[in-house]
User: Fold these one by one.
Assistant:
Number 1:
Amino acid sequence: MRTIDLRSDTVTQPTPEMRRAMAEAEVGDDVFGEDPTVNRLEEMAARRLGKEAAVFVVSGTMANLVSGLTHCQRGDEMIVGSESHIFHNEVGGMSALGGIHVRTVANSSTGLTAPDEVEAAIRLPGIQQPRTALICLENTHNRCGGAVLDSEDIGVIAEVARRHDVALHIDGARIFNAAVALGVTPAELAHPADTISFCLSKGLSCPVGSLICGSREFIERARKNRKLVGGGMRQAGIIAAAGIVALETMVDRLAEDHANAKRLALGLARLRGLHLEPDTVQTNIVIFDVMNRPAREFMDAMKSRGVLASFVSGRKVRMVTHYGIGPADVDEALNMLEAVIRGLGDVNR
């Protein structure tokens, strides 16, 4: 039985060009700063995001952790969205490893955090309270259906941060999806923030890797914190080479994933027993509600038919389009889901 894997864009396979580049990469010891391929990738990333410098890390979780460690001291507080990846999916690393207190502000369904609520969450100086050192945004927003923040959305939070001398970090795991969806450069979206991280291993289809971009001074301190958490790599040019190919060849094609996600959303909306608003789908993530049964039960039935998705919560299911999934795959997945619904008897409920 054929399987259509819509769990995440992390399941992407490297392209043939990436595999060739990895096999032929010129390498050196990155801890000593001597890997020319890593150095080139970091320079490319900083330039694309409009920052002075960048550092290559192994994952988006490490990118956010290292950024938090570099912005904050032990006992400081950081403000994140209530639905953020940092809060839900990064094993509490900020507090466990950094001694950083995490405070949440509600995310809207479109991934926004209200500026007045963010401002109200910032601590006043005092010996009984932690210092607010950092505000984090997420773009695109994973648990809010791949929602996009534009430069105005980011700018109003940046202004709040500046008024209170607080740093702003963007978890930009899918920032290139946001830029493609908005028709702007990623540098425009990164500009209001002090730092931004992004993943190579999601829609850009690399096997591993993320980057943190910021000022030269910040990145030098972040490089030490990368080493602190075990992220110092040696001949890492072998994996960095795929990142160079990704930045050169895989960004514009993200629009195909967005079109396929819209096709998927429109099809899901026509199926009885499921609910979503297709107009809210902006990028490559589709989240829908199962009306008549728990999401995990529905997902088990989907899996038996050859469609893989991921669990969000309760009755919510997530599907993600990516490199390797085309329109024909979307249509086949929809046919399989229609069969699942018939088999479960949900069409009559």
Number 2:
Amino acid sequence: MQYDSNIFQLGIKEIRSLLQDKVLLIFVIFSFTGLIYVVSSVSSIELKNAPIAVVDEDQSHLSQRIINAFYGPYFKTPDSILLSDVDSSLDYGAYTFVLDIPPNFERDVLAGKQPTLQVNIDATRMTQAFIGDNYIQTIINAEINEFVEGYRAIYTLPIQQSSHIMFNPNLTSVWFGSVMELMNVITMIAIILTGAAVIREREHGTLEHLLVMPVTPFEIVAAKIWANGLVIMLFVIFSLFVVIKGFLQVPLHGSAALFLLGTSIHLFATTSLGILLGTQARTMPQLGLLMILTLLPLQMLSGGVTPRESMPDMVQNIMLIAPTTHFVKFAQAILYRGAGWDVVWPYFLALLAIGTVCFLFALARFRKSVAIS
């Protein structure tokens, strides 16, 4: 009973320390509310209001039809510029696309020739450049075909392709971005809170106080894990139901309880990792540098940003030891596809094994750092 009481009381101390750290507390609150809302709703992967300009060297009826085919919400109203202004406009960043219609373009089309149009693209705006190029080609081909045929022709191929988009039929980026950002925030805050908790003990001189108390390193580490994990879980519940499901109107197909169960296992692994980093770093700036080296691979290579199938096999195999890989897998399966326990239990088991290893390493490193202190 004394053993459990020590862990409980030390955990209460951790929660009080966090509540007294106003800056860190405000950062945590913003991460689970404003950051998720801003990242998912403001940053869109869809083409919207793309700036485009046209160099019309033909001044024909066909060229005017092509220009008028670009309209909102995908494109802004096209501006007419001179050929000599193309390079400077792209260098300045005034336009993402500049379409150059050559002289005698309409005449060559009617003569059965195959004249070419030039599309200059500012590829530094990567998302707009990739998607907009396909939009521009489709719009131009449709206008030329309609002009030549005299009507909007419908071509029937021998084989019909029928696409059925499941779980996100309108390809709404908010549905994907909000849940993925929540997973990134959970991992980031879990490492920050526990890492900062270890360093705070050292900087405030309270670590020496703990050493003279009848508590063991295991009790100290366990207390930091359950206290910070509980705080994060409360914010996850609020963010999931109020921010994502409430404000952003994202449908959650699966069991929220099952997702929260998996999140608690993930927190066990990431908070242990945070303590491990906290024992490696001596100051908060050092912890920040270590987090950059740790968080970027965990988030970028876990499958939340790009599919794991598109990565090299060696990277996929290495990332199997990362907790975020399994976290992304079961979170997407539950919240997007409504998967049940029979589907996600292998991910839970793998995450529990990774968490146990992280905890043992963190505990060993903490004991060593205490002995050095």
Number 3:
Amino acid sequence: MANIIKTLKGTKDILPQDVNMWQFVEQKAQKIFSSYGFKEIRTPIIEITELFSRGVGDTTDIVNKEMYTFEKSDRSITLRPENTAGVVRSYIENGMSRLSAPVKLWYKGPMFRYERPQAGRQRQFHQVGVEMFGLKQPTADAEVILMAVNFLKSLGLNDLDVEINSLGCPNCRSEFKEKLKKAIKPYLKDLCEDCQNRFEKNPLRLLDCKVEDCQKIFAKPEIQDVLTSDFLCEECSEHYTELKLYLDRMGVKYTENKLLVRGLDYYTRTVFEIKSNNLGSQNAVCGGGRYDGLVSQLGGDETPAIGFAMGMERLISLIEKKEPKKLDCYIVSNFPADTFILAEELRSFGFNVEFDLANKKFAKQLEKASKVAKYAVILGEDEILKHEVSIKNLETGTQITVRREDLPKNIKQ
């Protein structure tokens, strides 16, 4: 026997018995996001590599370590590691800036990062997310955070912690970076290799490090003094204060986390995470923030924007498992030709219908029907001669016989 070919490490099949959970999440996303006026967008899985090196940032782990990149026809192509850059590219390329602001978009689909597979995180993973373009006001930030909370609650997730922070704008952030570097420098040799590499290029990214020894250093009083200092300019401070006011008025409970910087270079001002207490140390189920400079960085006009993304594998691991939906009907009969015709009739009325293509014994068919359907539609010789069918409720065991033309009406009732 030939060796069995298996899935690549870090990838998984989504099997039929599990698909209903994915569909549940996707349907809730469609319902909640649409209620806020967001429209679905679907971008390519492959993009020019430059989109991510320019958009995500060449100091990030994603670009430096995790992208799946290959050469084709003298062009460098990458499987998308995240989707904000792709949605921004589409926004620019398709002239969406001419639309009335705000432009509200949502997406779902697979992303790809080469990292160590772990619970809820694979090398091919799936995200659902939103992007809003064209509004600089903190009302946009508040709506996006509120919508994320309401979406998670619609999935049955209520044990949530919302964390927020403001990174300021590039102007007020530059002085803060220098103060942070000065405070951290005496401990530089004790930081992990990644933090040492980030120290000059992007010191804010040090705060995103999950290494315990680094976290202990960042908790030192002199570093905390810098983190808790009020470095925001007047405009950024007003924006942050107004955001908190809106969240308070809408009843969104949150905590301020000065260590929250997110893992991507494009964030400005508001950043946020939503965490679930039902996960381990890596407990974030949603992350996002404002990226007012990304559209212009990728060739568009200056455009304020904000968004978030959620890992679908993590969401599905947290929500209550739902049983697959049963068929409306399973036709039990030993007359295949007549059964084919009846099945198609019922499907034309919108019912989900199956029957035994192998024409097994009646008892075997009825046993199968009880496992997969709500009703057994029995079509025997007497029923065919009398132009009737019998309907058996497989939950209650009750059975009635009706005229063939009345079958759809009776199933609906």
Number 4:
Amino acid sequence: MAYLTFFGAVEGVTGSAYLLATDSARVLLECGLFQGRREDERANSKPLPCNVRELDAVVLSHAHLDHSGRLPRIVRDGFAGPIYMTGPTRDLLEILLKDSASLQQRDAEWENRRRQRAGKREIEPLYTAADVEATLPLCESHDYGARFDVAPGIAVRFRDAGHILGSAIVEVFVTEQGSEKKLVFSGDLGNSCAALLRDPEIVDGAELVLLESTYGDRNHRSMEATLDEFEGIITEASDSGGNILIPAFAVGRTQEIIFRLGELYRRGRLPQQAVFLDSPMAIAVTEVYRRYQGLYNKGDKAALGQGRDSDLNSFLPILRYSVTPEDSMAINKIAGGAIIIAGSGMCNGGRIRHHLKHNLWRRQAHVVIVGFQAAGTPGRALVDGAKTFRMDREPIAVRARIHTLGGFSAHASQAQLFDWISHFDRPRPELYLVHGEPAAKEALQEFLAGHGWSARIPVLGESIEL
């Protein structure tokens, strides 16, 4: 018998982890960090509810930390098997995990200084740079479309999910007593209107499907309307002399925004004189994107070919990289009229907080939210209309205009999710909704029911038979 147990991303969007267990193998799908509210993040320090030393393998859909960020922790706890992913995911994973370890160590050092003053026991970081270095040699990459064995009786095939570079829909084939059954994990499905990447591949035929539901309760605005609004914000900021701040996820959203700004620049519709990419991690990720242009969609790849070097940097010549802390601080000496793309995407760390401190209280400034904001994050508070933003215990008045451009989302909308799942024709698979906040999952469940689909919402720790 084969069983699937839900270890994360069932009560919210983050912490993705699912254990597939048969009589002869144990494979973990995903190993992500819980992110958002402090009480959610406390779950990261708890061991996975299985013996990681007994795992045959881990299979990863893509590099985002809510899918990959606990890998160094399970390696520290004794996991020593292979970790399967696509080639671009391997390259991005190294960047993200090293940055995550640095943050884990920094946060632990800060907390321990506070604990020392209070006479409390010190804590250890979730993992360290050394744990990441021990994790990376375990990573094994495979191309899209190639079926390969990951454990006795379990094989996997990756399909392009179109979410970020290297993201995959994971097809899992389980063979027991001469009979094969197929499980499909959608991973994070991409927005078919997004730049650079290809649309999610169509998959059909499965006994069980895990479907993400991040935007299960809404449809995105059209890309045309999104770009019109974006251009309007740019023009308004230019007329008033205000800066535009874009809290951008280093992987995916940053490259999308650079491409869209490049389009406006080449049409003579970008009045700003400078665009700053103020994120060393996003700069490194953009270089990885350059190496894998063969995975771009044909139209956008052809557009990039107009640039000097056929990459994002030459496509937007006014783009400036801000690498050092001194480079970052110098940006705020500019009176106004700049576009500043900085991490982190949910405003809960990184250099964007520095720029928010210097701009949020200015009425002529604009903040453009281009990605999902998890509950409990500062970015979500801004979207929900917060009047103040606390930084280093100092309240900053929110007078800047806050814009949410959902059309830039890297996730499929409700209609796009339905279109993808509708290709699983008769007999329809068992369908489970994951990776969504409760309201989003429930809305998608109701929508699917209205179209003849039965979908279940699993609970944390639940096991189901495949």
